Amino acid sequence: MVGESPGAVPDGERPCLTLLGPLQVRGPDGPLHVTPGRQQVILAALLLRAGQVVGTDHLVDLLWGDTPPKTARAQVQICVSRLRTLLGRAARPATIATRPSGYVLTTEPGNVDAALFTALVAEARRLGREGRREEAVTRLRTAAALWQGDCLSGLDNHRLAHRTRHLDEERLAATELRVQLELELDRHEDLAGELEVLVGEHPLRERLRGQLMTALYRSGRRADALRTYRRGRDLLIRELGLEPGAELRGLEAAVLADRLSPGAAPGIPAGSAAPPAPRPPDAASDLSGPGPVVPRQLPADVPDFVVGPGRPTELEAVLTGGDRTAGDDRTVSDDRTASHGTGRNGGPVVITGRPGTGKSATAVRLAHRLAATAFPDGQLYCDLRGTTASPATPTEVLGRFLRALGVPGELIPESPDERAESYRTRVASRRILVVLDDAADEGQVLPLLPGGGPCRVLVTSRSGLTALPGAHRVEVDLLDEEGALELLARVVGRSRVDRERPAAEALVRTVGRLPLALRIVAARLAARPHWTLASMVHRLADERRRLDELAHGGLTVRGSLSPTYDALEEKDRRLLRLLSMARTPTLPGWLAGALADDRRPCLTDLFDPLVGAGLLDVAGVDGAGDFQYRFHELTRVYAGELLAAQDGTGLRGAALARMAGGWLHLAQEAHRRVHGGDFAVLHGDAPRWSPPKPYVDRLLTDPVAWLDAERGALCRMVEHAADEGLHDLSWDLATTLVTLFEVRGHHDLWERTHLRALEAVTRAGNLRGTAAVRAGLGSLHLRRGQAASARNLLESALGLFLVCDDPRGRALCRRDLALLARREGDHATAGQLYARAMEDFAACDDPVGRADVLTQSTHVLLHEGREDAARRQLDEASGIYASLGHTIGRARTLRRSGQLLLERGDAEQALAALTEALEMCRGSGDVVGAGHLLHDVGRALTALGRTRTAREHHKREHDERDHHEREPAARGGSRT
Question: Which of 620, 647, 674 finishes a domain?
Fold first, then answer.
């Protein structure tokens, strides 16, 4: 791109890792040689995602596509090794670290030109919003000076080039922003020549053409401005079959009327208005004299429009004039309201929803359906540009509407109040539909509402406009699967979708049923009939390039999301970026507090701006009665891109540690509430992040139920922490979750989390963490009846705990080794190990561990014939559990007492004890213990001759085991 003035980037501050132009690594004495070919491609891929893990599979795909050699991964390793040596000679430090799935390039902020460019543009946008135009222009010129040619010029790799498309788009958008700011600073004469070159390079870019028209007009070149418009219109019609957009048409009208004010911003200028649309031949009243002008300003309808499912009853009522209003299930009795398809009591209809759901298309479809019959006096339309940097002002829109209603330009009042009065007077008795598209807020809409009468208003907005009086709100949501497939079929052809139905369904799922994304995908497929739907699914599979694929013509998912994102305050933008790190389908209310390090009493308040902007959804309510939230998948990918581009590894790492620390704090607190304290568990020194105590108290009213409800998120956090090198957090959380795994029988999750944590601690050389995880795995194998592997794991863990001098760790291992010895019939060894475990638990003041040993070791006492001693131990253990409120432990002890009574022949007393223990297990959520007790109760009933009832208990035991997917070997695996 030409026309950019050089910025002031001193050589000493210029990034030494560059891809905005030729790929370069600059050393202290000048550029260093990067070997062409594979090394250049790998370095470019790492720079494009600096600070993020770039998968080895991704690098292999870049280098060889679908036909990699068998030695591909080894060749990548060799290239990375050579690049490390090269980067060691760079002017400023840069390193490439190995991660389990790939590599991450780390360097100081501002050392990669692409990242610096993005940061400078973001800062310029902020300065522009604050009215500091001169400073913003300086930042943008500095950002432009970083470009030394096309991105990665000279590097011939089409797969990599595809991934740089967003940078080219950002460069052009930054140029448009800088030109706009300079026009606002009255530098039109300096810009005209530059803009002519830019329009020549990007002839279909309407914003640049509008900026050129503005610069020419203000330079006294009115005729040239009009020629610029007409050349652009001819090109659009010839190339795309489209008329220019409303902004460009409005600008032409302003130039024709000679009403483009000197201080107006580019786009639709202040005081300008588009001329009335041509009147149709059959509108005789419009052509026969002084009758009122009938405006017909609606944009073209969307022929392949598909109605989405969001509030379907309500939406259908608006679209068809049905008999239902908003979700209150009341019948509309006012025929005029129903026929007009407007809100209750004649108030405005507000169509709202997240970016990309088709709010504008819905409004235009509704307006066209109702235009001829319900609103014969005309339709007014204006794009309020509420999500752009220069929203339309009510004064500007009123001027346009008055002109469209036939008021000559010289008679339009200058005063905003007088314009509003004139507008209300002209529409008061007429059946006109006013469509206000993309409203920013209530203040932009209120002056445009009629004072009464049959005129109605339809508004679209990403905000709910909840303060708009009398409004009837309709939320347009994602398409359901059938609607999404229908949209796809209407664009690419029904036979094509039917032929590849599974691929079509996968495509719909991949883009999250977002109408805009589907329309883009469908348009790309329609333009390439040789592409299969399956190939499009494959192109979208890698989320790192998904948003690159979701672009066609002027439609981009990024372009839909960015205005809403840009309109947020910086703290809310940062929170959105950080939230993208979460690997959970839903985001709990406390998570925003952890990521922002904010402990305010109502943590969900932090989510409100993001929900209000349509960037997050409310997903439900958690155990504390607070809301949970979720991303649309494409919004999460977009936020993740911004996180990588704008936030350093230090900020991301600290936020990730707080997020993991929050999950760990809550899991640890749940364990405490089950066990009466931090007993019979090992913890590390990793920092916790604690939400406010009242919130935690509400959340953990039923700690086992909370653990089970969040088990997916908790297990993912173990893996996430392991992936990011947070080994202390990973092993601590994994072992804390054994509380859940034991009572719910989630043995597969127990194994998965512990194996991932074991990789992390082993890689980090963390001896105590290694011991803790091996002990946990040993306990799992013991429950599964895998004696040999359990012994190996427990003995190796015990050896490490001896090295670490950790009495609780030793106690846990010896307790489980004693159980293993007892099952093998070696009661003497079991007794010795139980005694040593008791000493260790006493040394670390762990009463629950001691009670566990007291309960288990009764088996050894009974083998020795010491029944009285066994009973005393059970009484002592029961007392310990009762004093701590440890219901699960009390149930285990009571179960053992019932077993003793049953073995002694006292089936009646045994049944009473076992039934009481069964109720305790059910009350505390211990489904595994309940399963064991159903078996024991069945035995007691059989001993009493109640065989039918016994069979029922055994059947219930079998059904409950099946329901919780317990392994067959788990029977008899209880610690008691």
Answer: 647
Contact status, residue 794 vs residue 817, Cβ threshold 8 Å = yes
DSSP code per residue over 750-813? HHHHHHHHHHHHHHHT-HHHHHHHHHHHHHHHHHTT-HHHHHHHHHHHHHHHHHHT-HHHHHHH
Nearest-5° Cα angle at 365, 361 to 366: 120
**Boundary residue ending a domain (885, 903, 938):** 885
Give Cβ neighbours of residue 887 (< 8 Å, ≥ 6 apart): 881, 920, 923, 924
Domain membership flag for residue 598 = yes
Together in a domain, 168 and 46:
yes
Distance CA 416, CA 768 (A): 73
Instruction: Provide the residue type at 964 as one letter.
Output: H
The residues that bridge with 460 in the sheet, in sequence order, are 351
For residues 960 and 931, the answer to whether their CB atoms sit within 8 Å is yes
Q: Are 857 and 900 members of one domain? A: no
With respect to residue 622, please indicate whether it lies within any of the assigned structural domains: yes
pTM to 2 decimals? 0.63
Contact, 65 vs 159, CB < 8 A?
yes
User: Would you give the DSSP letter of residue 153?
Assistant: B
Instruction: In whole angstroms, give the CA distance from residue 313 to residue 322.
Output: 9
Kindly list the distances between the CA atom of residue 675 and the CA atoms of 354, 672, 884, in Å, as whole numbers in the listed order: 45, 5, 7
Residues spanned by the domain of 434 = 292-475
Pairing mode, strands 54-55 and 102-107: antiparallel
Tally of domains in the chain: 8
> Is pLDDT above 60 for 535?
yes
Is residue 274 in a domain?
A: no
Structure confidence by residue, pLDDT tens digits, 397-419: 999 999 999 887 778 888 889 99
Tens of pLDDT, residue by residue over 14-62, are 799 999 989 999 988 888 988 888 999 999 999 998 888 888 888 988 8
Q: Write the Ramachandran bin of 732: left for phi over 0, alpha for psi from -120 to 50, otherwise beta.
A: alpha
Alpha helix segments (H runs only) across 146-187: 158-162, 165-184
